[in-house]
Protein: Peroxiredoxin
Amino acid sequence: MSDLVPLVPRQAVPALRVDLAGGGQFDLASEKPANFTLLVFYRGLHCPICKMQLKDLESKLDEFEKRGVSVVALSTDDKERAEQTLQTWGLSRLRIGYGVSLDAARHWGLYVSSGRGKTSAGVDEPALFSEPAIYLVKPDGTLYFGSVQTMPFARPHFSDILTAIDFVVKNNYPARGEVADLRKTA
Structure:
């Protein structure tokens, strides 16, 4: 039996508090953006696709900020690997949260994979790590949008997410996918 817990739009998301590479702490409950908090769960230092994704995200931080969106990237990596991520990937502005427990990852609906040695980036995968996901969480702590993946490939593009945020804010578009129990709709 799996302990994977799918999150439901318009419902509260799990608590999330982690340390940040470079110092400080991220606490989702303390975030007070005008519109959303963007949580980008990445696989870790070993993932070359994550490197490209987070570099792209950092290049768009000003655009997210203009739209009232706070941003953080998170992984199950430990402090040493998170600090190395900041340095070797050349990330100077993006908040990098580390130490997300595997239990917390499962409560966020993330898939967990087993390490298989060195990646094409020449970095060993951890014994266990979470696969990627992107969430937009409203200031009230409820889920607005989620994209959860079992593989590192074919991730949503941040330019598309920015365009979507423009549309949903302008049109007060409701979160979709909120029906969790089909028996209650009959």
